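Margin note: ligand = NDP.
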Amino acid sequence: MPNLNGKTALITGASSGIGAATARELAQAGVTVGIAARRTDRLETLKTEIEATGGKAIILEMDVCDVASVEAGVAKLVDATGTIDILFNNAGLMPLSDIDQFKTDEWRRMVDVNINGVLNTTSAVLPHMIAAKSGHIFNTSSIAGRKVFAGLTVYCATKHAITAFSDGLRMEVGKKHNIRVTCIQPGAVATELYEQISDPAIKAQMEDLRKEMTFLEGNDIANTILYAAQAPNHVDLAEIFIMPTQQS
Ligand code: NDP
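Resulting structure:
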């Protein structure tokens, strides 16, 4: 099993939930983690926590929708470590509402963060991986990137885009550049993501779901990422569909 000690990872959406849990997990495995998000106060707290347990973290103030901010963050991390071995495209939004409410601003924000954000970070990091002839890109899709749920229509569209992009990217960069691509497709995870739901009926529906089952924790996703990253180089876990046991 390849040792991750001394490797570098860029993790977007590291200020909470799945991203923060993965930053902690990779840092424990000896990876220097570039922790990227907009809420730098959260990143400061995470960095302190990681360093207290002997890990290394570099704060990257980054809005994944802003190409200049992404490129500056990537340059800062590469200047500090010389390389980026792992990219975790994880930043995302889920402000759900029915289509006939026409919350078009929310639709646009989801497309911007969930799709364009992934393209922006990938295009900034990939040249470094191609030059190094190695790398591992993880993209957070969702169960909503495998099937469609009413009330989650635009969110599902963005996550289906990530599933498609991940598969195509894997085919294009695997053989040619020795870069692995893993698409993570979680079911319900207990994070702040649900707090952004603006439609009270859908929010209540999600709260009911939470009462019905034990949600996954961010750490459950982090563990699978660590597992995939530590697989031998000839093994690419192309898709990881990870669900709460009680979720159908
Ligand atoms: P959180 O709300 O806890 O985390 C979302 C993260 O995205 C935050 O760190 C936030 O940071 C970041 N983010 C949002 N907008 C931007 C932006 N413009 N630029 C940079 N960072 C941004 O939710 P989760 O941890 O649950 O979500 C992580 C990913 O997992 C998302 O892609 C989500 O769609 C996906 N997912 C979640 C599931 C769940 O049930 N929770 C299930 C399946 C997939 P900040 O605001 O500081 O910028």
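The chain has a mean pLDDT of 97.
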